[in-house]
Amino acid sequence: MEQQSLLGTLGLDWKLFLAQLVNFGIVLFIFWKWVVKPLGATLIKRQERIEQGLKNADRMDDEKKKFDEWKQAEMKKVRTEADHVLRTTTDTANQIKQDTIVDAQKQAAKVTEQAKASMESEKSQMLKEAKQEIATLVVAATEKILRGKLDPKKDQELIAESVRNIK
Amino acid sequence: MIFAIPPLVAEPIFHIGSFPVTNAYINSCIAVVFFLVAGFFLRTKTALIPRGFQNFAEAVLEFLLKYVDQVTHDRRKSMKFLPIVGGIFLFILFSNYLGLLPGVGSIGRYLSVHGETELVPLFRSANSDLNLTLAMAVFAVFFSHILGIVAIGFFRYANKFIKIGDVVKSFSHGGISIMTAFIEFGVGLLEIVSEIAKLVSLSFRLFGNVFAGEVLLTIMAGLFAYFVPLPFIFLELIVGLIQAVVFAMLTLVYLTMATAAVHEPAHPASAEASAGR
User: Fold this and answer.
1) Which of A28, A45, A91, B192 suits a disulfide with B87, CB 3.0-4.6 Å?
2) TM spans, by residue (chain B) (predicted)?
């Protein structure tokens, strides 16, 4: 009984207790259902978005770096190749030039040689013909001079001998 | 008599049937309406780029979450406890500050109390009614037990208090462990007492602080109406915040402790074996 009066003095009343409990329950329910749940989800969603964004930015940076490196390497490679091509081209051109010159010189030498040879043969031919002509002339002239003094037999011998000498 | 010291018990203003609507209950209902309205506005505010009210609410929520994290060390647990702990904190804080507003304790009806006509205030700080503080304490402790049972199972949770399982197990080990088990059994029974102590301490601490504040402010205003009560109103602002923090923190600690995994006492045999290794 004393316990009862103590609780009564403190104002405890099961109806009020229940009513306050319900009030408190309503507040908790509202706070949970209408505030923490949607806003908590929003906070998590936003955090995920930000993390995703940062990750994307990092990835972009990485990719850009990689691309830059690749570009540098590629540029270097291309430049080396270009140098190489240029050098090869110059070398080839020089070689061709050299070859052409050598060829031309050879050709020229050959032509000169041929010209010389043909001139030589022509000259000897002409000399041969001239000798023949001269011999014939000499024979004819001698014959005319000596017609009367020589018999045909002697004449023939003489001609033969002259010809032999000419040769 | 204008400066009547508020009585220990909240006074009924009117009755609905046999239900007494007390001035503290009216304040509690005002708080409920406030949370209903605020919740109603926040219900659909889930924009990724917050502004205005949503921004403020998110700031409050993150502030609370930071403190809850410090106790739980686990964000998922924090999100689970936040509705209870945060709700308790905000409800107590709002109720306490509502009780400090002018008009609370001074606007009232002349009613006949114990045969005398007295000015009975229409509003009274909600937490200066033991019914509410006890209701919150009962809810907090009861909920911690429910969460504990859900987290680690009924029998393992019950074994925290009635350690019959440990006593039975100890017989298989024999020797000193039987004695240890009986001592542990006694400790378990003490745990039950401590659970009741939790209820009493939680509810009476809040009730006592808020009620004492009410009395203090009334007396100070009665001594000299101007300036003298000002520092005490500031004091009550701090007390209102601190009491909300204390109640919420203790609830959080109870929840965390109840859901923590049970620390199994190491078997003497296995302990020896591991020591010998």
Assistant:
1) A28
2) 24-42, 81-100, 132-155, 206-227, 233-255
B24 SS3 class: helix
> What is the C-alpha to C-alpha distance for residues A62 and A70, in angstroms, rounded to an integer?
12
| Spatial contact of B114 and B130, defined as CB atoms under 8 Å apart | no
Q: Read off the pLDDT of residues A31-59 as tens digits, 9 standing for 90 and up.
A: 888 888 888 888 888 889 999 999 999 99
* CB contact (8 A) between residue B83 and residue A31: yes
Domain ranges in chain A are 2-122
B40·A34 Cβ contact <8 A: yes
Phi, psi of B179, deg, nearest 5: -65, -45
Q: What is the pLDDT of residues A6-34, one digit of tens each?
A: 777 787 888 888 998 999 999 999 988 88
Cα A127 to chain centroid, rounded = 65
Instruction: Say if CB B252 and CB B68 are below 8 A apart.
Output: yes
Q: How far is CA B178 from CA B164, B181, B186, B266, B267, in A?
A: 12, 5, 13, 14, 12
Chain A neighbors of B139, CB-CB under 8 A: 21, 24-25, 28
Are B267 and B157 in contact, with CB atoms under 8 Å apart? no
Q: How many domains does chain B have?
A: 1
- Is this prediction's ipTM beyond 0.85? no
Q: What is the pTM of this model?
A: 0.72
Candidate from A11, A24, A36 with C-beta closest to B83: A36
A21:B139 CB<8 A:
yes
Under an 8 A CB cutoff, do B91 and A24 touch?
A: yes
